[in-house]
Each structure stands twice: as C-alpha cells, then as structure tokens.
C-alpha cells in the first residue's frame, strides 16, 4: 500500500499535490464533459443555451449533492439505498409542515436535519457496528423512511413555501442558488476529506480498514459517520428540491438513487472503497444532466434517450475497469 | 413498508366514514344498488398522489350510497406490480364479492384478475386497459374516453389558433395508452396546419413535476415558437411553467385537465403572460364512481348503469367562460379537483388538509 502513489497521501495529514496529477477520474470526466459540450454545440445548440442551462442546472446540482453523499458511503466500501427515502422525507417535511407558511420553515428544516441524523445513525449502527450487509441494512432503513414519508404526507404533494422557492429556486448573480449550494458543499467535502485529520483518517479507513484498525484508528466510528454525513447531504438535496419544484411529489428521491451511484462511479471512486473524488463527482453530475438535456434537445425517442444514457455509463465504467486492471498489474509487479 | 399499512387502513376507514356522513341524508337507494348483500374492495395500483386520494374517497362515497354493501376494503399497490397482484389475490381469497381495480400495471395484473373472476368474484377493472375480454377475464371494463379528451382539446386549439400553430404535447410514462388515445383524438380534429413539435408520440414526463420541468425547459430551448401546450396532467405543469420567464417569453395557451393549483396559478400569472389562455377537461376522478356502480349492480343484483365508458366533460375555458370560467379557490388546498363530484371540503379532508 505504501508503494502505491495513489494512497501515499493517506499516511499523514500533509497534502501531497501528486495526488492531483494522479486523479485520472477527474481528467476522464472533464474531458468527457468538454467533449459532450462540444457535441451539444455542434448537434443540438439549444441544449447549451442560457435558458436550457438555467432550467436544468438546479437538477444537476441535486444529483451532485446526493452524489457527494453516496460517495462518502462508497468510500467506506458501503452502499446507501436509503437515499430515496431520505430525500423524499426531507421534501415532505419541508413542504408539509410549513404548509405554505414561511415562518414555520426554519423549524421544518431543523426537523428534517434531525430526522436525517437519526436515519444516518441507524444506518451507521446497522452497517458499521452490527456489521450487516450495507445493501440490506439501508434498504430496510429506506422502508422505514418511506413509512415516515407516508405518515407525514399520506403520499400527497403540497405546494412549497414562497421563501423556500426564493432560496432554492432563485438566482444570485445569474447563477441558480441551488448550484451555489452544490459548489459550497463540494468545497466543504473536499476540504474536510483532503485537508483535515478526520478526513485523512476517513479515507485511510476506506482504503484499508484492517490496516487502519491496526494503526489504532476508530474504524467503526468513521464508518458509522459516513452514513450520517450521507443522510445530511441527502436531506439538503431534499430541502432544495422542495424549493426548485413548486409542488414536489412525496417520492421525489426515487429517481435519484441510480444517478447518485452513476456519478460516483463516473468520478472514479472505487466501489471497493478508498479515495473519494468530490470535484469529479460534481463534474460527473453536470455531465449526466447535460447528457439527458442533449438527448432531449436532439429529440430522439424516449427509448433512445435511455439507451444513450446507459451507453455513457457503460463507457464510463469501462474506462475505469481497464485502469483498475492495469494498476493492479503494476502493483503486483512491484 | 409495513408502517404504512395502519395509515392506509385508517385513511380508508376515514374516507368511508366521511362518505357515509356525507350521504346519510340521501335516503333513496340508487337503482344500481340491488337487494343482495355483498362486500366490495377498491384496489389501487398506486395510491400516492392527491388525484388518487380524491378518487379513492369518491369510490368510497359512491359505495356508501348502497346499504347492501356490508363491507368495504381498500388496498394500495404503491406502484409495485407485485404488490398490486398480491392485493388482488388476497382480496379474492378473503371472499370479497366485488373488486374494482385500477390496473396501473396494465396486462401484468390480468392473470390475477382472471383468477378472481373464475373464483366467482365480480371483477371490474377501470380506466387503464388491462387487456383480456369481458366475461372471460373479468365482468366488465369501465374505460375512460381519452380520445374524447383529445378531441375537446383539439377543438379548442382550432378555436384559438384558426390559422394553425405549433403544439407541444406532454404525457406520462413512455407508451402509456392514455397519451396515445389523447393524441389520436387530437389528430382526428387537427389537420396539417397544426405541428406537434415534441418527439413522437409525446414528450415523456412520467407525470413527475421535476422531470416535467426538465423536459419543458429543453423543449422551450429547442423550439422558438410554441403556441399551445397540451398536457394530460395540468397540476404537474404548474412548477414547470415559470421556466418561460427564463427565456423572456410569455406562457402560451394551455389545454389540459383541471386542478385547483393550476387554476390559481393561471389567476396569478395571466396578467404578466398575455398568451396564457387556459382550457381544461375534468380530470376524471368520477370515473371510479361509474366502475363502483357497475360492480355493485352486478354483485347485489341491481340495474347496471347505461354507460360503460366515462366521458370527462369540458370544465374550464378562460376565453369564453363556458361551461365554467377558470375557478381558483385559494382557501382550499391546491391538490384538489373542483371538477370532481366529491364535495370540496371532503376533498380537502381526503388529501389531509
């Protein structure tokens, strides 16, 4: 592990700028995104018009935020299927409890964050402490979260408050606020992961829990916290959705689960755990969103839209599979 | 999802209670309610939106009009085909006499319906085509004339755009039969002067407000001229329509189905958007009433209704005010449908507000 330059920075808190050069996921995803933008300009210019971007960027921001949450879990070798329930619960709490009344919004947001923390701790204990399979544990918590969604909303959408709509749906200096939220969260996650002791330990544990345990790190605590951070990020995404969409359904999280995993994989985070790539994850979210805008702008049938997205994912995953084999071979030869 | 079950049971019981309360004054027994006692179940493929809650409450209200219906059950398939099938099987196994089924999953639920039919239950699927044949797989299918809706929209479009124009048609999931029928209806009325700018046969939105917003912004970017938007679920458009402001364009004319939130949105935005005319057909909550009448008539030995297809009437027209002007009730929740027979406050209760 020490020989592998990719994990060299995990040995201490000091930043190693070589890791920036080595983030091949970043290069891949940026090159793909630029290529896609060029393709849009050439084939379907409407997909990159100011109006289309303003309309679609908030949704890219949402995918970016849930992607960051999923990334933290994947970094610990886990998988969080309770994303759908977490996002949906945040949506219904922030639309149903205030019921159009701005004054009740702050308490609803606090309540949503509290629920997210509880759900995250529950996931974390089941997976990190009790060692349940992550997929099974989080699917169970997802069902509980949906129980709460029904209890709060009865499955009915409610119109959002004007304040929430102004905050999440508004713009600052021409940039949708939701995008600013996503960028701020990306910077926060990057800073904590890459520049703080907690973050460095978090990545080290993801890369090799046994070695980290031997080094005296609190492996279970960090693994548990991954689910808490993730739920908090899903919660923020849910709160933003409740402002971006005027009358969100009670199941708004369902369609985000697959994109969240897709952006994590496209950004180059190994599903086996280890290093996370917050910036690449956010760029991948923009890429995925732009891809669906491209398909819509070209006006291909719905079936073809789905196929285009699936192919992009297969290509993305293919790129990394090839890289893994090569680096494994390099490692073996050392 | 076991936690949701008591919720649903409570909801169904509550809906029935309100329904009984609302109709207690109505002493006269309708002709479709026969002398034999029977139990009735309403089986939903997906019960999680306000439209379905109002529809469920309407079904319960209709069933409560018949005193020989001694037991009323409700089950929600939660959009899960497997659960919808098991709901049908379990109701049949419990010996419920009449099943009214919203078969969202289409032909996938047909085998379960056929089994229930063969075991002697009166099975009445409604609104969504489940395939099969009357008398063989189920007792009676109560369709909704989506072709008729398409014709109503087409006629209105001809009135407001006699010289032709560009139409953007949005419907639900890819290939849903409702959207296809509506398109058929519109094409019967509209000639080549009217161009559909969406991908054939319609732009797919899954009736999801977030996806609708994305699809609409892509279509606006692509098409400089959209004269009229046709959507078969108006309320899901409400969140998306402000996208036109991003482009500095007026919201165009809109032909759709009714909803209180849509009417209020029109009220608030008509002045800033000179081209924003609104035309709605009734969203069709009362389709379930016709299905319940048929199921009850067949199970209790009553006289079946004359109709076997529900035709949604034209509801609002902002241009002529006929048959109704656009009606916004800001005092009531946005997620109710003033076109439905169910009383406004009963609807508000049904959607939990």
TrEMBL record, chain B:
Protein name listed in UniProt: Substrate-binding domain-containing protein
Q: What is its main location?
A: periplasm
Identify its protein family: Belongs to the bacterial solute-binding protein 2 family.
Organism the protein comes from: Paragemmobacter ruber
List the Gene3D superfamilies: 3.40.50.2300
How far does the signal peptide extend, from start to end residue? 1-24
Q: Does the keyword Signal apply?
A: yes
Keywords from the UniProt entry = Signal
Residue spans making up a coiled coil are none
